Amino acid sequence: MRHLFFILFFVLCFSVSGNGQSQKEVNPRVQREFNEAKQLFQQGKNNEAVDKLQHVLQMDNHFAMAHFALADIYHWEKKKDLEAAHLRAGLAVDSVDYPQGFYFLAMLEYQKGVYDTAVVNLKRYFRLSPKKENGARRLLKSAEFASYAVQHPVPFHPENLGPAINTSENEYWPSLNAEANQLVFTRLITVDSTGQSLRFPQEDFYSSHLDSAGWSVAEPLGKPVNTPDNEGAQCISANGDLLFFTACNREDGYGSCDIYFTVKRNGKWMKPLNLMSPVNTRGWESQPSVSADGRYLYFASNRKGGKGKMDIWRAERTSITPSGLPVYGKVTNMEAINTPGNESSPFIHADGKTLYFASDYWPGLGGKDLFVSRNEGDGFSVPENLGYPINTNEDDDGLIVDVTGRNAYFASNREGYGGRDIFHFVLPEELRPDAVSYVAGKVFDAKTSKPLAPVVQIINLQSDSIYEQTRPDAFDGHFLLCLPAGKDYALNVETPGYLFYSEHFDLTKSYEKSKPFQLEIALQPVKAGSVTALRNVFFDTDSSALKPESFLQLKQVLAFMEKNPQWMVEIAGHTDNTGTDVHNLKLSKQRAQAVVSYLEEKGISSQRLVAKGYGATQPVADNTTADGRARNRRTEFRLVKKLEINQQ
């Protein structure tokens, strides 16, 4: 550790009797004054020791030990300019006997952002020192990286989010929902409503919403989330209905600081709950970041078993309670990114594999720097520094990135409205995460328009597995699920008493990230005449052979038929207007029959099934566009009538 070097160095300086002046004999009076300075230092009288050492230099300005001793005192007093000045002066007199001074000087220059000079002095240290201090090679690597980064800056043009969000108080730790229209952040309140200073500053959460007029004036999140105690370092889930945050020294806490969460129900935040063990321990847990699918919670902790002082950990969601609350366990250390130093402020992007975080150990520009690491399936990659001037020689942390991967948000004390403000900037292309879209929708009864809260599933058609599922808010029927690019998805919505609903999202091809999927899902009650489109039944062009990806949806149809044995159904085939009417009518009938044949093979009575082809006679969209034609090419499932049991 650096400060131990200074202790040992100063003690060494004060323990010699002229040995440091190897090239000449020390004047006895100078030596006596130097020894008196030593005694003053040992008594904790630093000011008197400084005066005495300056007197020594007046008597002999080539007495290097006095310069090094002064540098050590100024180090402890955090007077870095004076410390550096005396290191330079001492080294100018004698650099051979005390090469460690170059190392200490390089530390100061690196911290100040004078990277080129720091590199030069570190190389001098390596040439002269027979024994290399721990950390010197790491410092050289950081200084060389920083020097290169400053000479090759990345595009960085931060813009203040404005007075609706930022004030003369400190605003920091921004968090966004997937739609990027709700911003939740922490504000440190130092004065009351009359302008009087508070004895104990108060950290609370504030929220702002974005519309065509811009960000609304931020309002307190209110009770029961905000309390007379401090709350901070929060993240909001992709759908905006789950908030994780940090609170310290609470009665139900496990350690100094714990992670809590609250759920929004019927438009209101519920009473926060401690996330409990194994996420929380007797250590310090903070700065949560939840993945868009809710499966993983990343956080910073100094708990036992880590690699360094502060590590980033990940907890996996192990279950969901009957009331819809997440339960997290299986906590693992993110070994690939953690170091013997400090890693903190993790942010997992909605793509599920791009992790941004801060570190004071990986090669950087000084203090805490921001890094990105990506999980391509075989673990997280070696972290990449975000570069200069996103990173500086000061502490830089708390970065988040919206689902588009283009817009980044962070807090800074750069010029603004006072204190720390929240800023936005466009993230350089090479530092962006993978593209992510999302589907946002509202589910309601087709007849009454009453909001519904059925199970909504996103299925990965390539792996035939559930990617994520949720239930809409019963208050308004709203839901949101993120869709990382590069996969083919099916959406299924099911609830008792209604026909199922399906959609198809093919993200294996290019798509407009700025145009997410917005759905109004009117569920049809189980009654004669109700119809739903089988959007995940697929055929090749001009073919009636079912593609393998269809079987997931067909199993859903089969399950409905088995649960509702009294219903007779019609399977209807529809085409777009490409081709002749005769051809389209024939093809649509053949496709409907293919579905009927599948159900019959699975044991459904032929008396309950009718196959009909309608060709292009019943379009549901404009046939002049590619999207419209795709919507018109569909297979439908219609309830015809109830049958007597003996009819089957």
TrEMBL record:
It is found in: Cell outer membrane. InterPro entries: 6-blade_b-propeller_TolB-like (IPR011042), Bact_OuterMem_StrucFunc (IPR050330), OMP_bac (IPR006664), OmpA-like (IPR006665), OmpA-like_sf (IPR036737), TPR-like_helical_dom_sf (IPR011990), WD40 (IPR011659). Residues 526-643 form the OmpA-like domain. Keywords: Cell outer membrane, Membrane. PROSITE patterns: OMPA_2. The keyword Membrane applies. Coiled coil: none annotated. One of its GO terms (cellular component) is cell outer membrane. Gene3D superfamilies: OmpA-like domain, Tetratricopeptide repeat domain, TolB, C-terminal domain. Its main location: membrane. Pfam families: OmpA (PF00691), PD40 (PF07676). The keyword Electron transport does not apply. This is Cell envelope biogenesis protein OmpA. It comes from Prolixibacter bellariivorans. The lineage of its organism: Bacteria, Pseudomonadati, Bacteroidota, Bacteroidia, Marinilabiliales.
